[in-house]
Design goal:
The structure is a single chain. Helix content is 82%, strand content 0%. α1 runs antiparallel to α2. By secondary structure, the chain is mostly helical. The chain contains 7 helices and no strands.
């Protein structure tokens, strides 16, 4: 356990908590965290995760922009994906994971090429859905985080494994929180529509 891993883990926990609260400061804090983890993962030869951190850095900037300046009004409304959108995202992530896993298996000395690649691909999908405030990001994060715990234990990154165990619990909380808010928003929209119809009639 290094001081860098300790600091990165702390920033990661703070970033997830802020995400659940829909606080846009989750993105710059997350940006610092992923840059730290790029170096940590390089040291243990999880190369896909090194690349993932740099992609995450770009997505942190994208999420920050989307949550603060996207659209006509600051902020991004919570929403849900359609089944075709979910299926398309999962199929694309699977394809990316397979291609990346093959490249790592045959072109590098990666410690866990297929696990590293698969988790990288699905993390990218979860990150994209989170930036777009799609509630489906949370169940996907739950699955990814549980598998990351096992990967990091096998890589002797015990503090990071503990962090991802915490991420799993926070993702459960995030899922319940965002679903509750989404249902409330839909209920308010439905009530508003009924009131508008009553006024028209």
């Amino acid at each position: 356990m290094s001081p860098l891993e300790l600091l990165a883990s702390a920033l990661g926990a703070i970033a997830v908590i802020l995400t659940i609260r829909q606080n846009p400061w989750c993105w710059p804090i997350g940006l610092v965290m992923v840059l730290m983890y790029a170096w940590i993962f390089f040291e243990v030869k999880l190369y896909a995760n090194v690349a993932l951190q740099f992609v995450f850095a770009g997505s942190q900037l994208y999420g920050w922009w989307l949550w603060t300046r996207g659209g006509e009004q600051p902020g991004q409304a919570l929403g849900a994906l359609s089944w075709p959108q979910r299926l398309a995202g999962l199929l694309l992530a699977t394809l990316v994971g397979l291609l990346l896993g093959y490249a790592l298996q045959h072109g590098t000395d990666a410690a866990a090429p297929w696990q590293d690649a698969g988790l990288t691909a699905f993390s990218l999908l979860a990150q994209l859905w989170m930036a777009q405030k799609r509630v489906e990001c949370w169940p996907l994060w739950i699955a990814v985080d549980v598998l990351y715990v096992a990967l990091f234990i096998s890589s002797a990154l015990y503090l990071t494994a503990g962090l991802y165990a915490l991420f799993t619990l926070l993702a459960v909380h995030g899922w319940l929180s965002w679903r509750r808010e989404l249902q409330l928003n839909r209920s308010e929209e439905h009530t508003s529509e009924l009131q508008s119809l009553a006024c028209i009639s």
